[in-house]
Amino acid sequence: MIDKKNAFYYRPKTNQSTNPTVRWTFLILGWLFFTLGIIGAVLPVMPTAPFILLAAGCWARSSRRFHFWLINHRFFGKFVRDWEDRHAVPRYAKWLAMVMMTLSTSMLFYRLPADTLWAAWVVAALCSAAVVVLFRLPNA
């Protein structure tokens, strides 16, 4: 059990909007992205990390309370802090993403009919670009 009085909490830097409409929009988008991230944690088809990072970005512009909660979350907190501080991604996450994209793209080439094979090539090019960008980021 964590002693909440003496525990270290990361204090995020937020840049909240002063416009209430913008704040509510970002708050709602944050909850939408967080929900999609949770669904992505359960379903193997959807990614988790991009949605959690989008939720953190939205909440940083709308709600200090939710952003603070996400930054100090037991499962997602370290990942979000590493991203916000240094744009860093853990090495295992990079390799896992590359393997999963390779397997998914290979299945496309195997399963698509010959007349729609161009779609597999488009996906392969996009996944290759994503892998290059991902591996250029620092390791967490």
Can you summarize this structure?
Keywords: Cell inner membrane, Cell membrane, Membrane, Transmembrane, Transmembrane helix. This is Inner membrane protein. With 140 residues, the protein is an all-alpha fold.
Task: Provide an overview of this structure.
Its main location: membrane. InterPro entries: DUF454. Keywords: Cell inner membrane, Cell membrane, Membrane, Transmembrane, Transmembrane helix. It is a multi-pass membrane protein. It comes from Psychrobacter frigidicola. This protein has helices at residues 20-42, 49-60, 64-71, 77-86, 91-111, 117-136. The chain is elongated. The protein has 2 domains: 20-86, no CATH class; 91-136. Helix 1 (20-42) runs antiparallel to helix 2, helix 2 runs antiparallel to helix 3 and helix 5 (91-111) packs antiparallel against helix 6. 67% of the residues lie in helices and 0% in strands. The model has no long low-confidence stretch (mean pLDDT 86). With 140 residues, the chain is mostly helical.
- As a percent range, the share of helical residues equals 55-70%
What percentage of the residues does DSSP assign to strands (E)?
A: under 5%
How many strand elements?
A: 0
Q: Give the biggest beta sheet.
A: none
H/E topology pattern: HHHHHH
| Envelope shape | elongated
Pfam family, one: DUF454
Protein name: Inner membrane protein
Organism: Psychrobacter frigidicola
Keywords: Cell inner membrane, Cell membrane, Membrane, Transmembrane, Transmembrane helix
